[in-house]
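Exercise (ungraded).
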Amino acid sequence: MAALARANDGPAWAYGRDEITRRLDALYSELFEREVRIFPLATGTAANALILSCLTPPWGAVFCEQMSHINADECGAPEFYTNGAKLFAVPGQHGRVTVEGLEAALATLPRGDVHHVLPKVLSLTQATECGTVYSLDEVGALCDRACGEGLSVHMDGARFANAVAHLGCSPADVTWRAGVDALSFGATKNGAMAAEAAIFFDPAKAEEFEARRMRGGHLFSKMRYLSAQLEAYVTDNLWLRLASHANRQAQGLASIIDEVSGVTLLHPVESDEVFVRFEDHDAITRLRDSGVSFVPWDIGSGIIRLVASFQTTDDELRQFRAALHSVLQAESELPPQV
Amino acid sequence: MAALARANDGPAWAYGRDEITRRLDALYSELFEREVRIFPLATGTAANALILSCLTPPWGAVFCEQMSHINADECGAPEFYTNGAKLFAVPGQHGRVTVEGLEAALATLPRGDVHHVLPKVLSLTQATECGTVYSLDEVGALCDRACGEGLSVHMDGARFANAVAHLGCSPADVTWRAGVDALSFGATKNGAMAAEAAIFFDPAKAEEFEARRMRGGHLFSKMRYLSAQLEAYVTDNLWLRLASHANRQAQGLASIIDEVSGVTLLHPVESDEVFVRFEDHDAITRLRDSGVSFVPWDIGSGIIRLVASFQTTDDELRQFRAALHSVLQAESELPPQV
Amino acid sequence: MAALARANDGPAWAYGRDEITRRLDALYSELFEREVRIFPLATGTAANALILSCLTPPWGAVFCEQMSHINADECGAPEFYTNGAKLFAVPGQHGRVTVEGLEAALATLPRGDVHHVLPKVLSLTQATECGTVYSLDEVGALCDRACGEGLSVHMDGARFANAVAHLGCSPADVTWRAGVDALSFGATKNGAMAAEAAIFFDPAKAEEFEARRMRGGHLFSKMRYLSAQLEAYVTDNLWLRLASHANRQAQGLASIIDEVSGVTLLHPVESDEVFVRFEDHDAITRLRDSGVSFVPWDIGSGIIRLVASFQTTDDELRQFRAALHSVLQAESELPPQV
Amino acid sequence: MAALARANDGPAWAYGRDEITRRLDALYSELFEREVRIFPLATGTAANALILSCLTPPWGAVFCEQMSHINADECGAPEFYTNGAKLFAVPGQHGRVTVEGLEAALATLPRGDVHHVLPKVLSLTQATECGTVYSLDEVGALCDRACGEGLSVHMDGARFANAVAHLGCSPADVTWRAGVDALSFGATKNGAMAAEAAIFFDPAKAEEFEARRMRGGHLFSKMRYLSAQLEAYVTDNLWLRLASHANRQAQGLASIIDEVSGVTLLHPVESDEVFVRFEDHDAITRLRDSGVSFVPWDIGSGIIRLVASFQTTDDELRQFRAALHSVLQAESELPPQV
């Protein structure tokens, strides 16, 4: 908010020719240790769909994990922006595409015949929809395989900060150094008001971006308000501090789940998301009635999703712990806290 | 050809206002035992894609077997015509979607949230890509389930004649009486020069068809040449006679496969297609070298596809039998012929 | 900014289920004196293109003034969102479509033949690209004519506040009471950070809006930040106060133009825009060198655009006056000020 | 029909790998005196829309005469195939775009700003919708201007044979030698059953054609039936003989119009079309009642269109002459025949 108030001070050029926006290329080039092109946007769906439309023709195939946001949660935005490219849903492991899964999907798509779409993009979500994180080796191996097939690699980084904080690596290591061509860089889930960015590591692939952004209605006249968020976000390591906090609190949630019976973790907890399966499905209702907010992920299977945020306090963890014990009818005597 | 020559005789009105085209609605309404709307086209892909675009908005989901033509062999034509609707590839049994498969696919698609596409169409291929045929009960059960979910049902009938000939039923039984809303009625694979039709059993669903056909460049000025083919095709039961012949010859091929070792049928043979797996993959090469024409379906797995046609002669079957025995190094003494 | 800071206080539901967004329907229904549906967005192009895509099929025609933003300044966003509807550029008078112009355009489009797109929408810009304002009678007459042809009417209100302030009418009078079906309600040009709204007066026409917004990547997860702007904007008449100020300062600019020779007003000044033609084209360069900011509208014809804003001060007017006199080499003695 | 019957003889490879189709590249390369790529199609709308989609991105502008088929008679097919490119309707002279008209249109489209679509294609119709023909010099001057702006040039040759027959030039002269990049080569209006071709003079611009044709549903499995028409059409100069006949008969119609009062020619008659304006609009009704077939082009203005064809006989001209004299209540004594 402070950055926004500063951006609000005085007149500015429109459509991204303002001072703040013009600073972003340099700022993010430094962050990513190479020249990048960055385009501020307001939603992650816009970033994903616009990037994909730059990486594939309408007759291309995009390989992605079946639960990935682009495949399952964007109401067909990638298909709309690419004018009908085909998403191949690859079953993964805890939300991660595997090299074997990618190979199996590629094998279903014969080459050299105009009847079939052409394999064009591999899209990886980092951190994944399951809250897991690809290791550097995993990203590298997938990019190698994709590159060998002539695919571009897109990374959906709605939770990129959480992944980088978890890996403790340089943002460059897990993106272009591993073979990623373009990144949807998310800030909204990690504290920004509404700020995402499309970042291209290969400027040649960004050539169509500006026309596509304009046609999509995503060119902000007062772009400085987006840019100010993106500037403040990475200044003084703010983004990683916020994400580390969220990751740490997610670990706290995971510990709480681990300590009681009747609930299990569905996936390794590596970012800010915690997926919990309840043996007793009714306990989910009781948990909600007790005032805990969560996403009823797959109620038929007794699965909920908890998300820790940059704002989640230790107090809130304690309240959750108490509520969980209560609804699971645990012993009246809580075990000593972690 | 005779029908075309007759159509060529004298002037005619353009864009479907000619005498022949105007007779088609009545002719096909009689064939299907109810009022239908029929639109002549030249390719099956056009019929499929145009029909689907009338049955789903861009934010809809189309459920289909994973090997279906619309999903695997049309280079994204359905996505192009629907402006990006999403095809859900359902794994089937011998090319047939099952009720369980449909239910599993529906279960992955939550309702009531704008993040997800809406389930809109079930597309069945009759006969299937594997040469199998849905029974009347199977079509009925699938349509019931689809209807219960508010889906429209499309039938891709590129090999519709073969399916009807196999089932020995009325065309009405396996389409609208079972719950099908629109049919891609194919004639090209069964003897026509280039003639397919989009047939709507519910005229309300055909409302947008003419505008969409025009925009797709599929409105023929001299439509009578398409219509003449479609008229001759169903006159005096020609279509079923041709298809029955092809089906019978496919049974002949299947018998030949059955009688020798080293080759097996991959799917039940119920129409004009015969999928054969070779234990010795090199035999496939030898078979081709011996002059037999076939589609190398999945050479890595030793699978080829044979297609019997309305023109396949008994002599050709005998030649195939001899060639197959030869390449499989069968005994010099052929068993007595079937 | 104050409204944003308040919206920032505490957690909130995502995707428009927050408290602020839920208040908007009622707030704007009161403002427009009837039940409306309002959808917050961040850009005017998104509002225009999304609304148009709800009002026309791909095979429809949209009639609009040739200089209108949807036709000339959105890089084809309406064509993208409508999947290829056709914009008919109607030459207007000072940026206003006339009934005669609409009729002439309609006459070029024969009916009843699938070769031609169907007339579907009339889009009016209020205030226009020329800074002029349609009178209530003019809007009414155009809507009557459009309605008689079965067209929906869209109003691009990027400068709607300026128009309403100029007319001194109720927002209802110049929209639905006159026959407008949907309004792109702009706040960004009149002081908001980035806030526009799609407002539908006929809820039936908004049915597809939410799916289209999602596919366009325009559904904000933290929608409250858009909604807070839209709430503050119309509270205590803020929007009209800001617009009245801008209009008044534009009148001030116009008076300055009137008082000197060598420059003329290109259009009546009825909102915040002032188009000026210079006899001596070099004077434009000198004006820029003197530090005045303006849009070089059509330099070949000696035309620039001045825009007064909610922030334009009397001091700035005085500076402009001095600069203008100076570059036009006016008498050393300035006439007494207006 | 004879060519079709020959093509029907014996089996053939599908999807254009047949013998006839493979001969077309060489045949048309010879006809056009350079290497060309030719793609058989069944409708002119498909040829136009597919070619345009290869020459412009969705954010491009296509300049064309306002009455051109792509702009006025294809229900938005170009917009559909290009995913929303913008057609700029240029007013022409007797259906011909002029250099001045092109320049005026280009001037309305500022460069260098992402708000505006990019000028990408000039589309010329040869012969035009008015039955006139561009001279070689006119085509050359327009192509030069277009080329100078970085535009590709498309020629809609639905009546290409009539134009070449009128000019008496080589097909090469009026296409690539003058600067045309791609041609919609029409045969249907000049005697074929349903055969058009997309011809690219620059193979690099044809790269996307096959994928786009497949997605459009325009890849014929039995392509030889299209190819056989296109082969027979240009063999032994058949196409020019047919077109010359039609042109000659159109001149005959024009002479008849010239000799009577009360009717005038609207445009110079240079191909097979004759546009006639009647002073007495009721005479049009009487003409139709007398059995003459024509297109009621613009009845409000008393304009009809007559089209001579490759089949039009001298007898038919005589009948028309008699009918026209009769409905115009000419003297009982007909003047001696021309």
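Further reading is listed at the end of the chapter. For now, observe: The longest helix of chain D spans residues 238-259. Chain D has a mean pLDDT of 92.
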